[in-house]
Specification:
Pfam families: Rieske. This protein is α+β, with helices and mostly antiparallel strands. The protein contains one helix and eleven strands, in the order αβββββββββββ. About 10% of the residues lie in helices and about 30% in strands. Strand 6 and strand 7 form a beta hairpin. The longest helix is centred in the N-terminal third of the chain and has 18 residues. The protein starts with 14 loop residues before the first helix and ends with a strand. The relative contact order is 0.16. The N terminus is likely disordered.
């Protein structure tokens, strides 16, 4: 049997399989747990927010989303693409980093005029990314967006 094969049953896995499993578990813990109080980032799955679909309607054009995908007074989290897009007022689109500055959790939703991290309940303004409610003390980093017609891309 090679190191790549694993028999079923207790005590029959190879060391490589056990180490791979431990590494995968460690990676899952790191990606889902909170880290230190820095700007280090971890990815996350897109979360639908403000009634908008997280995948957007931009198709294969290279755009992040369509303007119609981002609700006025709300936003769209595209964690896999590394951006939160908000529309604080009609026709004004803002981009922010999707990672909470408190302990590195991905933000969860956009609701009530704020970008929210449900790990420790930090809230950030959809207008400028500033902290509206801690424990975070540092605003979300801004991301430059470009709106061309009805398509939103990173600038």
């Amino acid at each position: 049997m090679s190191d790549e094969q694993v028999q079923t049953g207790p005590a029959t896995q190879t060391r490589r399989a056990l180490l791979a499993g431990a590494g995968a578990l460690g990676a899952a813990v790191v990606l889902s747990a909170c880290g230190d109080d820095s700007d280090d980032s971890a990815g996350g799955d897109p979360a639908p927010t403000g009634g908008a679909a997280a995948t957007g309607g931009a198709g294969d054009s290279g755009a992040l989303a369509s303007t119609a995908d981002v609700p006025v007074g709300g936003g769209l989290i595209l964690a896999a693409k590394g951006v939160v897009i908000t529309q604080p007022e009609a026709g004004t689109f803002k981009g922010f980093d999707p990672i909470c500055t408190h302990q590195g959790c991905p933000v969860s939703n956009v609701d009530g005029g704020t970008i929210n991290c449900t790990c420790h309940m930090s809230k950030f303004s959809i207008t400028d990314g500033s902290v509206t409610s801690g424990p975070a003390t540092t605003p979300l980093a801004a991301k430059e967006l470009k709106v061309d017609g009805d398509q939103i891309t990173l600038a």
